[in-house]
Design a protein that fits this description.
Blueprint: E1 11-14, E2 42-52, E3 55-69, E4 75-86, E5 97-101, H1 110-117, E6 120-122, E7 137-139, E8 149-153, E9 162-163, H2 175-192, E10 200-206, H3 207-221, E11 228-234, H4 247-262, H5 273-294, H6 300-314, H7 318-323, H8 330-336, E12 343-345, E13 353-355, H9 357-360, H10 372-375, H11 378-392, H12 406-409, H13 432-441, E14 446-452, H14 460-467, H15 474-477, E15 480-485, H16 495-512
Parallel strand pairs: 5-8, 5-10, 10-11, 11-14, 14-15
Antiparallel strand pairs: 1-2, 2-3, 3-4, 4-8, 4-9, 6-7, 12-13
């Protein structure tokens, strides 16, 4: 495994009066051997450099904690972060700063970091599974550190982030509680590091897009305006998947079509993939949506016609489509498309495949991990991250690192959300309302939606639907841009997609600034 050589000595700093190493933990009473997160903020800082587009960027990497306090100043949470800040000459203009996070809810934010956006990255073989160690971990030529300083934050309960004092995990596990904790942590970081005058961005992946959309509204209402928000693999409106609502089925169809085409399940192969997907979109939001809206009033002849059209696009038999009343869920599609081959497709990247028994015999179903696409990259990312954290960044603690804590956090998640313009909380979150309100209050706020066409977890057509329902005037609709990649949920896992992402993100930052 290759590592970036350190250019300076490890500096261990405490934000406060005394100097304390990062591994110092508050263990409570002498009789209590439980490892606890530190109440006092700790950090380790090391010096490095990375070369991007032929230019060398010296930077400081800091791994540490931010103490979240309530309105009375009582510490309630310790949020772990890793920041990469390019060194500048004294008096230079403030560089942009971006706060990044993954989703879940229940995921730490290492994936975006070592996936290639940070200065070091783990090379994977997507869309094929990456084998066991040794892994290739090298400086990332596609990092966006040349455009912006980067701060990766872990939600409370994930990574090394933990509740403090009398606070418990569920106090943070909900749409609005989660946003509040991130708002307090970001405000703390900005204040401690004197970054109030820096251009600011948020970057969320998966549920992180939900967080980012509500978070930008909250922070702007507190006086911290943003230049841009990047949404990777979005889900903003959870109401579309409620029972009796058909929009989720409609959102799936273009991603199903891309998957069927990739696996050779369509009779005719279109010459232009993106033109084909535009055609499928027209079918999905036109004849297909109309047929679903008719419900039980749909005639047999109409059902036959739609089933035949849909079969040509998604590679499933007309008999199966009629048996499901034209409504095919994501998990059903994964199992049905390659049934004749006894295979199942990936969830987060449907180009991946595994034997069908992979799901059937794997015990309790965890949608975050029970997936050949996830299995194909997880070890490379986690192994590289753990070595990077302790070896390159020098951060050591007795706490257990939690990369994915979904099985604990998700069942305890409070989905109620107080959206702008509503007197009472919505029972199911729709943060597109928050993002729309944030753009209306700050017309210079730019939004960049990045999407993998083989992502079945958060289909790109769903992102288009959510972002087109923000109640924006035509002039503000231009603030929203889209890009699409021949990759999955973690688009950066594919090296070709990562290179394209770098180009698109560089352009977005330049335009937003």
């Amino acid at each position: 495994m290759q590592r970036l050589k350190k250019l300076g000595l490890l500096s261990v700093l405490l934000i406060g009066a005394a100097v304390t190493p990062a591994h110092a933990e508050d263990k409570g009473p002498a009789s209590d051997d439980t490892v606890r997160a530190p109440v006092a903020e700790v950090r380790t800082t090391t010096s490095h450099k990375v070369t991007i587009a032929g230019r060398a960027y010296p930077y400081d990497a800091t791994a540490g904690t931010l103490t979240i306090r309530d309105d009375d100043g009582k510490p309630t949470g310790s949020m772990f972060y890793v920041a990469y800040v390019v060194k500048q000459e004294k008096g230079a203009a403030k560089r942009p700063i971006t706060f990044l996070f993954n989703g879940g809810p229940g995921s730490a934010s290492l994936w975006l970091n070592v996936g290639g956006l940070g200065p070091m990255y783990a090379v994977t073989d997507a869309p094929r599974a990456t084998g066991p160690a040794p892994y290739t971990f090298i400086p990332s030529p596609n990092s966006i550190l040349d455009k912006t300083d980067l701060v990766f934050l872990d939600a409370i309960g994930t990574g090394y982030s933990r509740p403090l004092g009398t606070a418990k995990g569920p106090d943070f596990w909900g749409v609005d509680a989660d946003v509040d904790s991130f708002a307090r942590a970001i405000t703390r970081y900005i204040s401690v590091n004197q970054r109030w005058g820096s251009p600011k961005f948020l970057f969320g992946e998966s549920y992180g897009t939900t967080r980012a959309s509500a978070l930008v509204y909250k922070l702007q209402n507190q006086g911290m305006q943003f230049n841009g928000v990047v949404l990777l693999s979005s889900i903003l409106n959870f109401a579309v998947s409620m029972p009796g609502i058909d929009q989720d089925y409609i959102n799936n169809v273009p991603s199903f079509a891309a998957t069927a085409l990739f696996h050779g399940k369509l009779d005719q192969k279109p010459a232009d993939l993106m033109a084909f997907l535009r055609e499928v979109r027209d079918f999905a939001q036109g004849p297909y949506a109309t047929a679903l809206a008719r419900g039980d009033r749909l005639s047999s002849a109409e059902e036959d016609s739609i089933a035949q059209q849909m079969s040509r696009y998604v590679g499933l038999s007309t008999e199966y489509l009629k048996r499901t009343r034209l409504r095919v869920g994501m998990e059903a599609f994964r199992g049905e498309l390659l049934r004749d081959r006894a295979q199942i497709t990936g969830r987060f990247d449907s180009r991946f495949i595994a034997p069908a028994a992979y799901v059937e015999t794997s015990g309790a179903f965890d949608p975050a991990t029970n997936d050949p696409a996830t299995a194909g990259v997880t070890s490379a990312y986690l192994s590289s991250w753990r070595d990077h954290l302790t070896g390159d960044l020098g951060y050591v603690t007795d706490l257990t690192y939690r990369p994915l804590y979904n099985m604990v956090i998700e069942p305890n998640w409070n989905w109620r959300h107080k959206a702008p313009g509503f007197d009472s909380p919505l029972h199911t979150a729709n943060v597109a309302l928050d993002l729309g309100a944030a753009i209306r209050s700050n017309p210079q706020l730019k939004v960049f939606s990045m999407n993998g066409i083989y992502d079945l977890a958060t289909p790109f057509f769903g992102a288009e639907f959510d972002l087109s329902h923000m109640l924006l005037t035509p002039d503000l609709q231009k603030n929203v841009q889209y890009s699409y990649y021949e990759s999955g949920h973690m688009t950066y896992a594919d090296q070709k997609a990562l290179a394209r992402m770098k180009q698109d993100l560089s352009r977005f930052y330049d335009e937003a600034l």
